[in-house]
Amino acid sequence: MKTFRKKAVRYCLAVFIIASLNFIIPRAMPGDPVVNLLGEDFSVSQDAIEELKAELGLDKPLPVQYLNYWRDILRFDLGYSYHYYMNVLELIISKMKWTLLLVAPAIILGAVIGAFLGSLSGWYKNTFKNRLSTSLFLAVYSTPPYFLSLIFLYLFSFKLDLFPLKGFYATGGLMDIMHHLFLPALVLTLFIASRNYMIMRASVLQEKGRLYVEYARAKGLLGRAVLFRHIFKNASLPVITLVALDFGFILSGALFVEIIFSMNGMGTLIYDALMSRDYPVLQGAFLIITLMVITANSIADLLYSILDPRVRLK
Amino acid sequence: MSCLHIKNLKVSFSTPLGLLKAVDGVSLDHVDGETLALVGETGCGKSVIARSVMGILPDNAVLEGEIYYEEQNLLKMSEGELAVIRGKEIGIVFQNPSLALNPVHSIGRQIAEPLIVHDRMKKKEALLRAVKLLEKMRFEEAEKHSRMFPFQFSGGMNQRVLIAASVVADPKLLIADEPTKGLDAALKARIVEELEIVKRFNGTSILLITHDFDLAEKLSDRIAIMYAGEILEISPLKDFFSQQMHPYSQALLKSLPDRGFVPIPGASPSMLNPPEGCKFHPRCPFMREICTRRRPSLVKIGGREVRCVIYT
Question: Does residue A99 share a domain with residue A55?
Fold first, then answer.
């Protein structure tokens, strides 16, 4: 319990620092904040700029701005996008829904498939089947997800016409959405599974030589029972760490996949915001993704303590 | 009746440096209910014999000979047939208890496991049996201890847990591989006590593998001396301590701190290319010319067996 509290404090500190950076960076950037805010293609009169500055509180001294910044965050107010004419938080939530629909199943499936197949491959190291699956996963592992997306899009959508070319949906409805999601979710799942596969395989290979494995056999456990009753839990600990650490990476991977499949989610939102220098949206997305990565890490901590008594009881 | 009968066992490991002969023609007859101590220096092949009986040698091991357990040749058995015997008929206690226990499973679960695997017992019932066994082995808070984990225990406690897990399914034979290695005198006494409980309550035969004469003297009925993969002498305990037959046995006892502290000259031979003839001849004070050429065979004298040209 004590370590849990310690960790909670550490996570809060991380959020605080990152949010503060989020405050400092746009203010440290060269150029006029209002011009940055509106984008360079807007031309506004000097009076209007001053008026906007006063309205946004940018004419106040920095410490006051900083306090106001926190006040806004605590009110869930992430500002207003002048490109979308929309509240930033609402905008992000409307896009994040779709991205999570794509990413969440991929993370879960990728973790389960990767851990399961990886452990089998580590256990039966030298069989033909496992050499084959290891080569396949290695190929996926070393291919950037956007490239894999392009290949899949070309092959399955363009050439074979099995899946739609773009978007999250055409007509709406569950089947339609699943049909659209299948290919990009498959790419992401394969990508995540391949990373977990490699880690799990190495982990099982390492655990396999330990004395407790020999003792499990000496107790009368046979073959795969040794793997799943004794090794799996020990070997899966690094995978949990990897999934948590990978979370940000996975989101950025999803970004490319979304863009290639022309899906209107977080990836496209961030990409467009980047292209048009929509700072309120970028800042908001940065903050939300940070919070998600930290949440993922705390979930990993929790899982770790459930699986490993050495973490739980120390 | 003998429960374990080893006949001309040869175990070698193929290594990059060549064939390493760890066990070179060992024959043993383990009588039902007795405790046989296999004593020798580190690296003489004692543990390899233990692992050969359990069938858990590494992949590069080459085995020859026969190991009979109740008339069945273990070396001819499939992995599946062996699994039925391991943990149920023959139990083993390893020398590194803290590494032999699974770090993420509770003590109770690890002790109960053989019951679940072999007797298809319900988990709850098996855990209850585990607690009862811990009580029998004089754990002060058996119930609480069964819910703890190996990292919360000392090495000595883990060794006692390991013994419990190895005897819970009531095996006929227990192989104890250096059960007191690295333990202080008080803990050693607990282990001896625990093994005696096992012997008394279950009538378990024990193959005690050790380099500790003290332990062998306390627990065993017979003693076998191993050197460089061979058995040089097998004697009933009393006879052995009153008079050792083989020159190596004599030298080994004399090298103990409380029996003279006289080191044996020379070093243990390499297992990659052991000496011709009697393997002990380069270090033997009674060496004759014939010892360098001919390997003596194990000869029976009374109730004892010895491998030395002096007795032929």
Answer: no
Locate all alpha helices (DSSP H) within chain A, ordered by sequence.
2-28, 33-38, 46-56, 62-74, 88-123, 128-141, 145-152, 174-208, 211-218, 224-226, 232-235, 237-260, 266-275, 279-307, 309-313
Q: Report the candidate in A234, A215, A200 with the shortest Cα–Cα distance to residue A308.
A: A234
**Degrees, nearest 5: CA angle B150-B156-B158:** 25
Rounded to two decimals, the ipTM of the complex is 0.91
Count of the separate structural domains present in chain B: 1
The pair of structure tokens assigned to B63 is 């085995």
Q: Does B25 touch chain A (CB under 8 A)?
A: no
* Shared-domain flag, residues A152 and A244: yes
Considering the domain architecture, whether residues A214 and A262 belong to the same structural domain is answered as yes
Q: Do A217 and A226 form a contact (C-beta atoms < 8 A)?
A: yes
Give the three-state DSSP class for A301. Answer: helix
- The reply to whether A130 and A244 lie within a common domain is yes
Q: Given an 8 Å threshold on Cβ–Cβ distance, is B56 in contact with A217?
A: yes
Q: Residue A164: which CATH number?
A: 1.10.3720.10
Decide if A310 and B149 are in contact by the 8 Å CB cutoff. yes
Q: CA-CA distances (angstroms) from residue B134 to B94, B159, B178, B253? A: 18, 12, 21, 36
Q: How many CB atoms lie within 10 A of CB A126?
A: 7
Q: Min CA distance, B80 vs chain A (Å)? A: 7
Q: For residue A235, what are the contacts with CB-CB under 8 A and spacing of at least 6?
A: A119, A122, A200, A203, A204, A206, A207
Per-residue pLDDT of chain B (312 residues; tens, 9 = 90+): 678 999 999 999 999 998 999 999 999 999 899 999 999 988 889 999 999 999 999 889 999 999 999 889 999 999 999 999 999 999 999 988 989 999 999 999 999 999 999 999 999 999 999 999 999 888 889 999 999 999 999 888 999 999 999 999 999 999 999 998 888 888 899 899 989 988 988 889 999 999 999 999 999 999 999 999 999 999 999 999 999 999 999 999 999 988 888 999 888 888 888 899 999 999 999 999 999 999 999 999 988 999 999 988
Residues A60 and A192 occupy one common structural domain: no
- Looking at beta carbons, which residues of chain B come within 8 Å of A234? 102-104
| CATH number of residue B88's parent domain | 3.40.50.300
Give the residue carrying structure tokens 């509290």: A5
Residue of B nearest to A229 (CA): B105
Same domain, A43 and A98: no
Interior angle at CA A291, CA A280 and CA A288, nearest 5: 25
